[in-house]
Amino acid sequence: MTLFEKIIARQIPARILHEDDLTLAFADIHPQAPVHVLVVPKKPIPRINDASDLDQVLIGHLLLQAAKVARQLGLDASGYRLVINNGRDGGESVPHLHVHILGGRPMAWPPG
User: What is the pLDDT of residues 9-66, one digit of tens each?
Assistant: First the structure.
């Protein structure tokens, strides 16, 4: 069971900001920006590379919920970044698909 599955199951505490039937959003415990929230599907998909056509609706919902949470946090006026890491070289640290919402400061480009 991944760290995120344990948070979804409430076995590990988290500051939850949003929840619906399909997703959960919570504050990152090691924030990389003034606002750093993770939005995860409750269905355990290890990474975006492992998603299938059957996950299309869920992934669309995941992204829309990330935008909703960003608006609720007031990030829509100044802007924010959504990040999905895939694999070791992509910066993935937990093998459970998740979207990072990063905001509250200007984001540099290129990242990394």
Answer: 999 999 999 999 999 999 999 999 999 999 999 999 999 999 999 999 999 999 999 9
Catalytic residue flag (residue 61): no
Rounded-to-integer distance, Cα 30 and Cα 85, Å: 16
Q: Which of 18, 61, 98, 100 is catalytic?
A: 98
Q: pTM to 2 decimals?
A: 0.95
Q: Which of 49, 46, 6 is nearest to 26 (CA)?
A: 6
| Structural domains in the chain plus CATH codes | 3-103 (3.30.428.10)
- Give the separation between CA 85 and CA 32, rounded to whole angstroms: 14
